[in-house]
User: Fold this.
Amino acid sequence: MDNKEQTFTQLVREHKSTIYSVCYMFSKDTDEIDDLFQEILIRLWKGYDSFRAESDVRTWIYRVALNCCLNADKKKRRGGERVPLSLDIDPFEDTNDRALQTKRLYARINQLGLVDRAIILLWLEGLSYEEIGAIMGISVKNVSFQLHRIKEELKKSHL
Amino acid sequence: MNKEEFNINQELEQMRQDYADLKERFDKQQIVNDYLIQKAMNSDVRRLFLSKRTVPLGIAVLVVAVILSFVQGYEWWLPVSLIIYALLFFPGVFWAYKGVREEELYNGDVLSTTETLRKFKKRYIALVTGSCLYFFAFVILATIYMTSLNISTELMWRRGIFIAILCVGTLTLEYVYAKRLLKSCDDIINRLRMKE
Assistant:
């Protein structure tokens, strides 16, 4: 493995839970997560050279992951072998207390449209408005407006 | 702060807490293995429309079809129609892909990436519609021509109709699917541009 591959492997290991969380919130089952995760890794690797000229790694990973989830052509499933991820848990099937808590969060987020889901996910991650704007391609003012609207929507569904 | 606002803020804080717990659970998992990473490094990105091999393969099939047409002594308009189609279609593919670098496409922000994809899909729909109309016109004209010369047989008619239905049906499905993707791009762009 050369230096570039090692650095990339390290980067993926550091951000695996971020990528997985995004895939989880945009998928219906574990197979779909596996497909999306694999697609995101390929996109990250192919775009790795052009990224290195940029600054923030987290912003870049979110951009690639969300672009994959929002714009993925789900008709075209990746041909060949599907590589299963290494997990002892199944966020869709587990039934213990923590899993129920996870499912409750999943249900709340999944009632939103795709764009709203992406924005609230970034907000839940604790990203600043500037960072959310840089990932989504919108102004800080617009981020604030979008978040206000999403919170109103969540409020309505809560009533 | 009224009671309703207090409740939603409490709910959002709860969601944040749940999300932090979720990430903590995922952090404890291995998730990625060496094989997966290695496989990702050796794979190609999913092509938006045609794979890298399709254009050279299409040209090769076309050349063989044209040569066969002459060798078998088919009517002149059959190879000519194929050549005209190729002369229109292959430059059309390059036009559809203009400005789209698939490897780096998803590196951009969500809005600009979706706008690029929308532009591509619009061109793609134009290409598919053009192909559909071309095939349709070809089948109609071929039928009229053969009928006027009294060289059409019942078997030829059946084959012609079958090919026409197959081509137009396939292209129509592609068209409907591309329209659906285009609508999803429009939805994303409209949502993000709400306040811009």
Q: What stands out?
A: The longest helix of chain A spans residues 140-158.
